Amino acid sequence: MKKIKITYWQDNDFWLGYINDYPEYITQGLTLDELIENLKDISNDIQSGLIQGKRMEMELVFA
């Protein structure tokens, strides 16, 4: 089972949110459940390489 952390909030009639590791990909839904499904779709697209320009992170060690 894969786990991801998300940030979400309600703004009037919509639920908005993003995956914490990819805050540039904000999505929305009319319900919290719809938002969660949209976030799962984004996560799958990122992992399968369908989204171009994915930001990556690495740790540099200096002597």
Written description of the protein model:
By secondary structure, the chain is of the alpha+beta class. The protein has a 3-stranded antiparallel beta sheet with strand order 1-2-3, with helices on one face. Strand 2 (14-19) and strand 3 form a beta hairpin. The model has no long low-confidence stretch (mean pLDDT 92). The protein has one helix spanning 32-47, and strands spanning 6-11, 14-19, 22-29. The radius of gyration is 14 Å and the shape is elongated. It is 25% helix and 32% strand. It has one domain (1-63): 2-Layer Sandwich (Double Stranded RNA Binding Domain), CATH 3.30.160.
Task: Return residue spans where pLDDT drops below 50 for at least 5 consecutive residues.
Answer: none
Order of helices and strands: EEEH
Q: What is the gyration radius calculated from CA atoms? A: 14 Å
Biggest sheet layout = 3 strands, antiparallel
CATH architecture: 2-Layer Sandwich
| Amino-to-carboxy terminus distance | 38 Å
Strand line-up of the largest beta sheet = 1-2-3
The best one-word shape is elongated
Mean pLDDT: 92
What is the CATH topology? Answer: Double Stranded RNA Binding Domain
Q: Helix count, per DSSP?
A: 1
> Structural class given helices, strands, pairing?
alpha+beta
- The CATH class designation is Alpha Beta
Number of domains: 1
Number of strands: 3
Helix content: 25-40%
Please report which band the strand proportion falls in: under 5%, 5-15%, 15-25%, 25-35%, 35-45% or over 45%.
25-35%
